[in-house]
Write a structure and sequence with these properties.
Elements (H helix, E strand, L loop, with lengths): L13 E4 L2 E3 L1 H13 L2 H7 L4 H14 L5 E4 L7 E4 L1 H20 L1 H9 L9
Antiparallel strand pairs: 1-2, 3-4
């Protein structure tokens, strides 16, 4: 039996079209924006450039029927960003889908893990 240190986990990307998808990175970005109140701060936490974080939010905002994130410009009081109700709903549905897939696929993940070889140097 393999001696892997970490249990297997799913990383799910849902593809709606060529440039329309949501996956773990975008979901993590949305969660961090919700917590930090800032696209820049969320991007920094993920070691992502401010430009890249804005590009991802732009893509998400264009994909759905309304924006997932609303931002205010900086200034004396500073700018900020918040998830919209739609943003919270999309994030919640994505995380629920992840949980459902993990639960439903647990037996197959365990079977795949049992077929793995040993980690080199830990035999």
């Amino acid at each position: 039996m393999a001696s892997w240190k970490h249990p297997p986990r799913l990383r799910i990307r849902i593809v709606f079209g060529d440039d329309e998808m949501i996956g773990p990175g975008k979901a993590d970005l949305l969660e961090r924006i919700d917590r930090c109140g800032s696209i820049a701060a969320a991007g920094r936490e993920m070691r992502m450039s401010y430009k890249r974080a804005w590009e991802l939010i732009g893509t998400l905002n264009a994909m759905f029927r309304g924006p997932l994130v609303e931002s205010t410009r900086g200034g004396p009081g500073g700018g900020g960003a918040v998830l919209t109700d739609l943003g919270r709903e999309v994030l919640s549905l994505y995380r629920a889908f992840e949980a459902d897939a993990t639960e439903g696929g647990a037996a197959r993940l365990a079977a795949l893990q049992s077929l793995l070889g040993d980690i080199p140097g830990e035999k």
